[in-house]
Write a structure and sequence with these properties.
Length: about 170
């Protein structure tokens, strides 16, 4: 099965954020952050007077509760995983309660039965384990990057698989 044949509604990746659903969640989180900018801050961003990555950390702090409520309302484990990637990427705040939820919903037991072959299981478990370790050790304010591989990257490294979409429902 080549990538063009994959139904976009079913597209996924072995990594947390290498799929279109994850990108949509990330876009939503960025929109929440964008809405809390002041007019002066918007001008500074537009004029490149503010380093955006550091500024996003400030915006995350400002709208943290809204971000959490949004993800809670999605009833999706992927939403929690993307929230974890997002907060770590920008060194945002992460309360213990949120960290526990992210760790809970990234547990291998939710996904282990969803794969058709051993290679798929190994790849997903590898990236999920890396993610969980980084979440567990995350320190507020410290930017922490998580592996990001798209399905194309996986195909290039391992060849195509007969992919079964991951069910992220809570």
């Amino acid at each position: 099965m080549c990538e063009e044949e994959i139904d976009l509604d079913e597209h996924w990746s072995y990594t947390i954020s290498g799929n279109w659903r994850a990108l949509r969640f990330c876009e939503d989180l960025l929109r929440f952050c964008s809405r809390v900018k002041t007019d002066d801050e918007r001008k500074k961003v537009r004029d490149n007077e503010i380093e955006l990555t550091d500024f996003l950390k400030v915006l995350i702090e400002r709208c943290y509760e809204k971000l959490i409520r949004f993800i809670q309302g999605q009833n999706s484990r992927l939403g929690y995983l993307v929230l974890g990637v997002f907060l770590m990427k920008f060194g945002g705040k992460m309360t213990n309660e949120v960290k526990e939820q992210i760790i809970k919903y990234s547990d291998w037991e939710y996904e282990e039965h969803q794969f058709k072959n051993i290679e798929e299981k190994k790849l997903r478990k590898k990236y999920l384990s890396e993610f969980r370790e980084k979440i567990t050790n995350f320190v507020d304010g410290v930017r922490t990057l998580v592996s990001e591989k798209t399905l194309s990257d996986v195909y290039a490294d391992h060849g195509p698989f007969d992919l079964t979409p991951i069910n992220y429902d809570i």
